[in-house]
Each structure stands twice: as structure tokens, then as C-alpha cells.
Design a protein that fits this description.
six-stranded parallel beta sheet; six-stranded mixed beta sheet; single chain; Rossmann fold; 14 helices; 383 residues; alpha/beta; 2 domains; 43% helix
Length: 383
């Protein structure tokens, strides 16, 4: 290698180092604010969002800040507006849930040099009455909770038909929702369809707690469902669902968690209760926010659009942990895996409350009205 070549190599290396250090510096200069229309500590949905923010901070050295607006909806609009107005504090602002759509959509255009990431609902980009200037600096993430809940329904009904201790012979399973709202109902219709796939005589007991931070109410509802011979209950109620877990532990029955791997979260502090949470339908908010941030860094974040993340994209799924593996018969593990593959491959279509006008599902649909499927459950259940 001659002297001229050596100099050229050194100059190229130095230039690459400058570019690399500049990129790192640019990331470290970024500021992200997460706005929670509630409080952290629910051990499910909002905590999952916070884990995503923490991961961004850990892996990229980004400055992050979380603002909790509290549980009173009266504070959410002004609270978000105040955080948005303090625009020197953030480059990316992240918030979510359908209750916040109008508040973000009305003001995002006032901060054209800022990026907004909205999770768990889609901005109505084509509605100028809501989305001023088309919400062109807002990226929306939705989750196909119906797909993940379909797996939960398959699992719950298969387990209730099994000989596992704590399960009776009745085909009843339960679902406790936080509120009677579309996104929660999308969980429930998927859950019902999954149960119907396993057993056309299944019956899903459904009740709404009317709020997200009332464990006593969740426990009251769950105890009543266990009295009606449901032996496993899917909680879709945030902090209210903690009461469902308490009831399952007291009655030696079972529960399915939501949004995060809720059994693993409490395993060290409350192992007896954790053993009653056989799995959770994870809405992987943490992964989706981290994914969105990496798209932002790469210049590929599709602002002004919405992306729906389902089983295929890892946006949703069941928790497969030691509790699940130890409690679940091998044939049911195989069934759940096969059903997931069938959904990903398009062999099973999961119903949704957000479907086309002539395909909108409703809670409480009888199994006879569910879409037909060629999937053979008997191969796994020995029917």
C-alpha cells in the first residue's frame, strides 16, 4: 500500500468517524415526551408504553420525559395542550388511546416541526373537521387486538375442556372489560370467536366494570362469574383487572392478563397470584414505540398514516412463559401455535368491530354466526 493510498484510507476512516459521532450526537440531542392519559403502575397498558420509552433511552441515549395526566378525563385536554405548548421540551411527543384523538388532532398542525406518535387508535386523517391539515405530522399505531384475543379465546375454551385441576366441565369462560367502547369490544369479539372455534357450545360471560382503576369492582364481577361456573376470565380492564386476579387466586380458578405479561410482572412479589394468570394477551406497545422510533431515525416513519400491527408483525400475541408451559397440556400448546400460524397465513379471518360496514362484528354473536373455518380442532382436542 503506497503513501497516497494510506492517506486516502485514513481520511475515509476519519470521515466515517465524524459521521458516526454526529449520528450518535443527533440521537442524544433528541427529546421524547410520553403523555399518559392516566397513571403508570397499571402493570399492563401504560406500563408497556413506558417500557418502550425506557428502552429508547437506554439504547439510544435519548432524553425522555413522561407526563401522567391522571385518571380524571376533565384534565386530559388541557393537560395535553400544556405539554404540546412547551415545545422546547420535545422533538417527538407520544400519546395514545381513542379518548385523546380530538385533542391531538386539533393542535398538532400548530407544531409543524414536531413529530407526533399516536398509539392504540388511528387519527381520522381524511376528516378535516377533526384532523386540521390532515394530521400530516402524526403517525398512528393500532393493534389488532382481535387477533391476539382470538388466541386467548382458543386457549381459554380449550383449557376449560381439559382435565386440568381448577377447570370444570361447563363451557363457560369470562371477560371483564373496563368500558363498553369499541377497542375493548374488539378484544371481546375476537375472544368469543376463538372460543367458538374450539367449542360451538361455548358461552362467554361478559361484563364491563365502567372504569380502569377499580380493583374492588373487578373482583366483584369476577367472583360472580366464578359463581356462574366460569373457571377462567380474560381481564381487559387495566388496573381494575387486578381484582380479577385476586378473585382467581381466592377461588382457585384462573385468569388471562392483558397488554403485558402480567404474571411475570408480579411473579417475584406475589407468586401465588401469578400462578393463576396462565397467560396474557400482550398488546406490545413497548415494541411498537421502539419500532416507530427506529423508523423515525431512519427517515422512514410514515407520517400522516396509520399502521395496524397484528400477529404477523408481533404487535400482539400470547405470553408464553414458564407458568404457561407448566400449566398448559402439550396438545393445547400445539393447538394455540397452529391457530396462530393459520391466522398469520390468512387461513383464518378474525372478526372485528372495526370491519367494513357489512362485516362489523358485535359482542355476543352466537357461534353459529361466526365465519366458517376449515381449521380442524379435533386434531388437537381429540373430539
Amino acid at each position: 500500500m503506497n503513501r497516497k493510498t494510506v492517506v486516502l484510507v485514513l481520511m475515509t476512516f476519519a470521515l466515517l468517524m465524524v459521521v458516526s459521532l454526529s449520528a450518535v450526537g443527533a440521537q442524544e440531542d433528541l427529546r421524547i415526551t410520553l403523555v399518559v392519559n392516566g397513571v403508570l403502575g397499571d402493570k399492563s397498558f401504560f406500563d408497556s408504553a413506558q417500557r418502550g420509552i425506557d428502552r429508547i433511552a437506554d439504547e439510544y441515549g435519548v432524553e425522555t420525559n413522561t407526563v401522567e395526566l391522571g385518571i380524571d378525563p376533565q384534565n386530559w385536554e388541557t393537560g395535553l395542550a400544556d405539554v404540546m405548548a412547551d415545545s422546547d421540551r420535545y422533538d417527538i411527543l407520544i400519546t395514545g388511546t381513542y379518548q385523546m384523538i380530538d385533542f391531538l388532532a386539533a393542535d398538532a398542525h400548530q407544531y409543524p416541526d414536531k413529530t407526533f406518535i399516536f398509539f392504540d387508535a388511528a387519527m381520522p386523517y381524511d376528516n378535516p373537521d377533526v384532523c386540521v391539515e390532515g394530521c400530516s405530522n402524526v403517525y398512528s399505531i393500532t393493534y389488532k387486538q382481535n387477533e391476539g384475543s382470538f388466541l386467548a379465546g382458543v386457549y381459554a375454551e380449550a383449557m376449560t375442556l381439559s382435565d386440568t385441576e381448577g377447570f370444570n366441565a361447563d363451557p363457560f369462560i369470562g371477560a371483564v372489560g373496563g368500558q363498553d367502547i369499541p377497542v375493548i369490544n374488539d378484544f371481546i369479539v375476537g375472544y368469543e370467536q376463538g372460543a367458538c372455534l374450539v367449542n360451538p357450545d361455548s358461552q362467554v360471560l361478559t361484563q364491563y366494570a365502567g372504569g380502569w382503576n377499580d380493583p374492588a369492582k373487578g373482583k366483584e364481577i369476577a367472583l360472580a362469574m366464578f359463581e356462574q361456573n366460569a373457571d377462567i376470565i380474560f381481564q381487559i380492564a387495566g388496573g381494575t383487572g387486578v381484582g380479577v386476579f385476586e378473585a382467581a387466586e381466592e377461588q382457585s380458578h384462573y385468569a388471562i392478563g392483558v397488554d403485558s405479561d402480567q404474571a411475570s410482572i408480579i411473579l417475584d412479589t406475589n407468586p401465588d397470584q401469578a400462578e393463576r394468570i396462565l397467560t396474557s394477551m400482550q398488546k406490545n406497545v413497548d415494541n411498537s414505540l421502539f419500532r416507530a422510533f427506529e423508523l423515525y431515525l431512519a427517515g422512514d416513519l410514515p407520517l400522516g398514516t396509520e399502521e395496524g400491527l397484528g400477529l404477523a408483525e408481533g404487535g400482539v400475541g400470547l405470553s408464553i412463559n414458564d407458568i404457561y408451559m407448566n400449566a398448559t397440556p402439550e396438545n393445547i400448546q400445539a393447538l394455540v401455535a397452529a391457530v396462530e400460524e393459520a391466522v398469520v397465513n390468512g387461513d383464518i379471518t378474525v372478526i372485528s368491530v372495526f370491519g367494513a360496514e357489512d362485516e362489523v362484528a358485535t359482542v355476543g354473536m352466537p357461534c353459529s354466526e361466526m365465519p366458517a373455518s376449515d381449521f380442524d380442532v379435533s386434531e388437537y382436542m381429540g373430539m
